[in-house]
Amino acid sequence: MPETDLPLAGLPSAGHPEQPALPAPVAAAELRRPADLSGLAFDTTDDLEPLEGLVGQRRALDALEVATRLERTGFNLFVVGSNERIAREAVISTLKSAARERAKPVDWIYVNNFKEPHKPIAIALPAGRAPAFQGAMRTLVEDLKAALPAVFQSEEYQAQRAAIDEAYQQKQAELFSNLQKKATAQNIALLRTPMGFALVPAREGKVVPPDEFNALPQEEREAIQKVVKQLEEELERIVRQIPRWEKDRRDEIKRLNGDTTQATVDPQINEVLADYSDLPQIVDYMEAVRADLVDNVAIFILKDEEASSESEPMMPGSAYDRYRVNLFVSQAEHDGAAPVIEELHPTLSNLTGRVEHIASQGVLVTNFGLIKAGALHRANGGFLVLDARALLSEAFSWTALKRALRRGTIVIEDINRLIGLTSTISLEPAPIPLDLKVILFGDRLIHFLLAMLDPELEEHFKIVADFEDDMERSADSEALLVRLFATILRREKLRTMERDAAALLIEQAARMAENARKLSLSADQLRDILAEADHYAGLGGRTAITRADLQKALDQRIDRASRIRERLQEQILREVALIDTDGACVGQINGLSVLQLAGQSFGRPSRITCSVRPGAGKVVDIEREVELGGPLHSKGVMILSGFLAGRFALDAPMSLQASLVFEQSYAGVEGDSASSAELYALLSAIAGVPLRQDLAVTGSVNQHGEVQAIGGVNDKIEGFFDVCAARGLTGRQGVLIPKSNVQHLMLRQDVVEACAAGGFAVYPVASIDQGLALLTGLPAGGRGADGAYPEGSVYRLVEDRLRAFAEIRRSLARQDSLSSPNDKNGES
Asked: Which Gene Ontology BP terms does the record give (predicted)?
């Protein structure tokens, strides 16, 4: 016979308010709500139409629609929700659809800046034309590599070049010949030596030796020296003109080379320009190429190693690379739609681009061809999808993204420059205009923290798409979810599922939502369950997933994560962990908690004890004192003091010292779901009334004694049930839960069957008064017209004990006062 059927002793019949009726156990029909598929005609999911779009996400889809259509600065999208994968798939699918309606963005190229090579030029071309231009420039260079050497080796060019050289040599030879004749006429010889030219005396065409010259009369020597000096001055004038003549010769050759190059290059350049004359930037660039080709034609004439030395110093690659086109961003791969780019590793360089370097002659060097696009460049004109956690984990990335969005341009940023460690030759590529939508994915905690800590978030991400975790349960929503099952099965190429199995999975979706009136929308978990059930169906040689296959998948998921649960239960059954499931005890109760491991959760009973003595009105939370209790748990314990003060400290201060503790708990304790159990233990310890140990308790409490809803109610009930079932069900065991949690019940079938058979019970409790009556067999009591609690009630026992504590404190205070020296001297 259940304890609740016992009479309530000591309940007065007059002068006191009526006590709340004891709650009846929750009916078995309310412990697990079965699926209702009566309105859906099908034998297997193959008979159902697949579900297009998302289920139960109207609010998020509306936000997504606005974000993709509204072309205003700052209206980027932050997607939040726990079902990240389904949200990501849905968002990307929507973005790809919207991308087909957006104007196709332009291609981007980087080309050499011939005037300032460290500042490459960015040029935009209509979508699809950049690859063609890159190919045209490559063809131009290849053609010139063959044409220019041939022109400069032609007989016509060689003849013109020879004429210039011959004219120079003839002019030089003529002057030296005239000087030679003048010197010979005066018996002076003009000699060419390794050190230059020399004028020396001569006689009959032969040089006069120094000894013979020194033997000549002084007058004759002075006359010869005078003539030599005059001739040397004339020779000096001639020699001084040689560099000018050489410069004139080089200028003539340069003009010849320029005219020759111009005649060869112009047709080639004009051929390219014919296809791009509508693009002013390309026209300007090609004119710069034309001028540079004329100035640097030696690149095409000299050998490769000589040409490299003639090109820009410290620039890697071939000398012809100065005319390359760096195809930076091409829209060819997006099939006529705007790009939708997902960057999984948003480092600074992956986000804003980078300038790569290569080793050359012991240093790192670079050129415009080594500029690489980042995700912002590749997504420009379309959509960029980023994970908020990954973005915030990378140094400088979040700030760089905000900077780019604010100024509307993409600047390639070097992290070495940002932290002041630049030690290589680098470039300053021209920035590129930015026009895109950024979509950030993150859970709610990240979004809330970011909104709180960074006020700029709202400036750049004005729209939030908050995806629901569950939806309201009804016949219509259950039918939608079954169609979702069918969609998942077809998309993942799994076997079809029978009707009974679909009903079981509907019930599991409600269990996952921890609410019998809700259905979980976690498509990831549902897909995993279906995949495992499909595996067991295959092992059994079945063509469809049956209810047994699905139940096995659910059982196996629990079993794989049950090692710790089984060890904890084993400790209880072997009385290593002390948990009583029968009898009664003062100041001791079974509380319930939930542990989560490997994606699975399970309930665990814990013994809570309380001891009391006279004191200053303090309830000590031992868990908090040793820093094992979290703030929510500590808050729950402090509420107990408020309850006691409100119920019993009406005309005298609290004279109580109490201590509460989770016995054999060696880890942290958090949450307030045990506060009602702690209050029962506290009241039991004060009143000296034993509490039933065959009942376990969960639920939080407020200062008015109302029992409030908690989470994990199914796991908590099942955790205590498993211990009781292992020891043997007596018919008196059960769990007290908040009345408001009844709507959340989706218990295992074996628990439901045990309750239906009377072997176990779940009691819905609305107040501490109801719980005390169940746990003690005594009424809690209510103050009568005389302001007193009725005799025999728990609260009367509590109040009497507290008054006794107060009297003890007053007695001790009087004794202290009488023994005080000040009192003896009349100085009190």
From this structure: protein catabolic process; proteolysis
Distance of alpha carbon 789 from alpha carbon 774, whole angstroms: 18
- What gap in Å lies between CA 423 and CA 64, rounded to an integer? 45
Q: Residues 654-678: pLDDT tens digits?
A: 778 888 888 877 666 666 778 888 8
The answer to whether 673 is a known catalytic residue is yes
Q: How many CB atoms lie within 10 A of CB 47?
A: 12
Cβ atoms of 322 and 112 within 8 Å: the answer is yes
- Give me the numbers of helices (H) and strands (E) for the chain, helices first please: 30, 32
360 is catalytic: no
Q: Which of 311, 520, 673, 767 is catalytic?
A: 673
Q: Dihedral angle at the C-alpha atoms of 493, 498, 500, 506, nearest 10 degrees?
A: 30
CATH T-level fold of 38-54+470-560: Helicase, Ruva Protein; domain 3 (1.10.8)
In Å, how far are 73, 304, 560, 582 from 142, measured between CA atoms?
A: 45, 14, 66, 95
Is 368 in contact with 141 (CB distance < 8 Å)?
Answer: no
CA distance 734 to 750: 14
Which CATH architecture is the domain 85-105+331-466 placed in? 3-Layer(aba) Sandwich (3.40)
- Cα 54 to chain center, whole Å? 23
Q: Which residues contact 628 (CB under 8 A, 6 or more apart)?
A: 665, 667, 668, 669
Of the candidates 104, 552, 716, 739, the residue annotated as catalytic is: 716
Residue 386 phi, psi dihedral angles, 5° rounding: -135, 150
